[in-house]
Amino acid sequence: VKVRVLGSAAGGGVPQWNCGCENCREARRGTGVVRPRTQESLAISADGAAWFLLNVSPEIRAQIESFPPLTPREPRHSPIAGLVLTNGDLDHCLGLLSLRESHPLTVYATESVRAGFTAGNVLYRTLERFEGQVTWRTLAVEREQPLGDSGLLTITAIATPGNLPLHLKSLRAPSPEDNIGLVVRDARSGKRLAYFSGVAGPSPALARAVAEADAVFFDGTFWTSDELIALGLGTRRAEEMSHWPLGGPEGSAAFLARQRGRKILIHINNTNPILREGSAERRALEAAGIEVAADGLELAL
Ligand code: MLT
Ligand code: MN
Ligand code: ZN
Question: Which ligand is nearest to the CA of 15?
Fold first, then answer.
């Protein structure tokens, strides 16, 4: 399976429009010390012809144009064969509404994420302009199912510690299907790609999926639990925002360092010191064999 990182930042991106933190200012200076990043999304393909996007960011239009294999081959066409949502957070779904130019879409999501996006959402009507504009394919947790029709890829949803999106909290009861990770298996190579971009903390199912993966993209949102508080930029701890911090003996970096496959951090918040080339935190990751995704990173499994 071929993989291209379309976006590697958490919601807001790097720099974030209303943020003047050290990292965002450095990104605007254009020195390369902190590279600008768009919001998290991955493109994957078994054959280089049909592509699937894992999460659909608000920056989808520019992300498609940044990668020629995702652009049309005919006057009306898209190589994008399907879109997969891991939760209902706006940085993961808002881009769907930007794909509204009367093109049929296939969207893979759990029933909870589908309902959270469609129910009572008057803007969703823009994707109901004609019969069959959106075909939903239901992801059931722990069930391997085909991704696309070629038989080349399968996908398995893994229930992952997380949360309802902010705009749905208190509106509905939480479910294990609100937040998932993905395991994509290439039928020909037998290789497994794990994708866990939102992880509130450890779990046995997560540990199993990551241990079996040849490469994992993992939640790199925050280095410390009080990152936003210490910078005076927010009041909530990482765990309250359902993100497992990287640093410290109980951090996710220590967990990842023990895994055999390639480990790549994604969904990185603009405040995170790992964004700064040469920082102590970045060097600690490098020493542990953990990579920091940047937009445009490619790999093949
Ligand atoms: C998150 O990753 O915690 C969410 O994207 C936050 C948000 O929706 O602003
Ligand atoms: Mn997010
Ligand atoms: Zn910032």
Answer: 3
Which pLDDT score, from 0 to 100, does residue 70 have? 98
219 lines ligand 1 (CB under 6 A): no
Compute CA 3 distance to the chain's CA centroid, rounded to the nearest angstrom: 13
91 lines ligand 1 (CB under 6 A): yes
Closest CA to 42 of 201, 197, 177, 214: 197
Task: Residue 239: name the closest of 229, 231, 249 by CA.
Answer: 229
Sequence-ordered list of residues with C-beta below 8 angstroms from that of 214, at least 6 positions apart, any chain: 191, 192, 193, 261, 262, 301
Type of residue numbered 70: L
Please write the tens of the pLDDT for every residue from 264-285: 999 999 999 999 999 999 999 9
Per-residue pLDDT tens for 233-254? 999 999 999 999 999 999 999 9
